[in-house]
Request: fold
Amino acid sequence: MDTPGFAKPRVAVHKFSSCDGCQLAFLNLGEDLLALAARVDLVHFAEAGPLDPDADVDIAFVEGSVSTPEDLGRIQRIRAHSRVLVAIGACATSGGIQGLRNGVFDAGWVTQIYRHPEAVASLERSTPIARHVKVDVELWGCPVSGPQVLAALNALLLGVAPRDDADKVCTECKRAGHPCVMVTRGIACMGPATRAGCGALCPGLGRDCYGCYGPAETVNTATLAAQFGRFGLDAAAIAQRFQSINSQAPVFLAAAQAIRGQGDD
Amino acid sequence: MRAHADPAVLLPIDGLPALLAALGRDGYRCIGPAVEKGAIVMRELDGNDALPRGLQAEQGPGHYRLVADPHNRYFAWANGPQALKPLFFAPQETLWRAGRGDDGALRFEAVLPEAPKLAVIGARACDLAALALQDAHFLRPERVDAHYAARRARLFLVAVQCAVPAATCFCGSTGDGPVPTAGYDITLAELPEGFVAHAGSDAGRALLATLDLAPATPRQLDAVQVQGEAAAAAQARALPGKDLHDALMRRLDHPRWDEVAMRCLACGNCTAVCPTCFCHAEFDQPALDGASSTHQRVWDSCFGESHGHLHGFNVRPDIRTRYRQWLTHKLAGWHAQFGRSGCTGCGRCIAWCPVGIDLTGEVAALMAEQP
Reply:
């Protein structure tokens, strides 16, 4: 793709409802960002400078969830202008922290909280990008990491599918040599239900994983929840373990609903 | 006491620094016990590191706590979350690199690890037995793993006889402990006044000779024997036999597999802490300039989806088949592959299972009923 005479692949980075933290994964790449810039044309990346939201691109990265009426049309335009669409981060893959409003949205709150509620245009639900358009690659995480974004982009530039690691955080935790915090401290770690990708950051610091990379493959949430109960958490506290960053990811949502259902008995 | 060719000597209780210094003079980097994040881990010791003393490892299903040893011993902790495996079978490493040469042709080059001389202090009998099994896998004469072999080649092993087995230990029933009988350069047994030491190799003999130690007394040798027998007798867990191949393979449809699948997280921690598990995955990591890539090997687990993935379908799509694969390979399949079970009774899979699934309990439940 570096062959002289051919145009460089065109890349865009778009933002929807989000905190911008995943875009920082690009900006924090340092020297790698310069190496990257030599291989692609970055045509739209508001946080970094270039603005051309409707440009045709080879690869579009999309951060954030669909959360406003305006988002609904914009994601369709982006899809139409992008050859490959990559959803990055918890907001784009599960609906994000703002997905906590799903199912409990009450228009009355807006009038209580905001001085000019007429200025607020929100959809009732915050939803992941894949709910609205075809997504080619999903990168989970809150936020995604620089190496994660870089590996995916690099693979796409080379014409291969990015490596999808849906194993549990535990696999990275054990490779890194961290003693299990559930075993040594009896604390409610989400690692056994959470997708790898962070390098077991939290258990490496001696604390519990809180599930920011979303559900891993083949997770046993009922057993994990029961173990959290043995650690002393009540049903509400256990449900909250599954209802934070990725509350709307189907596996975590179902786990929380099952626990709350039991709690109502 | 098993017959040792060499006479036993006594390393005084304050003599461990002298042992480490002697190893350092011989060019070894010393790996030994240290307390990290609430557990005993094996890590590189620098000259000023004091070995942890006065600690026991209280262990149970899904439970590990360091607690005080009333006798202030150095090696009263039975074990930690890892045996010797990570030192030789690296959790992640580069196997080879591919790139284009100046003429545009693809070139492949091996990437071999730096392999310093390593001395490991505090290997247990179960760890040594597990190392022998890893050797059998990675050093097969017809296919020697160059990366494992490079790390393994320059190793000095200081074994320790267990005095305080954990509640999770069952090496007595697998025949692998608690007294180290082979595979070490030096073995130590801790008594209040010092360490009764035996050499098990020429290197160990030469090293002990530099320390100018007094012979151990008959009373000390008796105390060591009593300690070993007591440690074996204190083990509360056991497997019902050394060869469970036929019994397990007759029970592949046992309802217990469904039952344990309900409790298992499929996190794979049992396989990661198992000192004999050797499964790995490989993938390529392209460099950012698009001109080269490295071929990576990482620890993998039969509890992951990708481990059972074949073209077009998955041979182990659920937790039931994954747990059954782990247990039947470990305790049955290994007999055909390596001539013995793959379990050395260290108990790590019991202690480090976040939900406390007990391998010995599962085997007992499987065996309790006729197939």
Observations:
- The mean pLDDT of chain A is 93.
- Chain A has two domains: 10-157, 169-264.
- Residues 250-264 of chain A form the longest helix (15 residues).
- Chain A is about 40% helix and 10% strand.
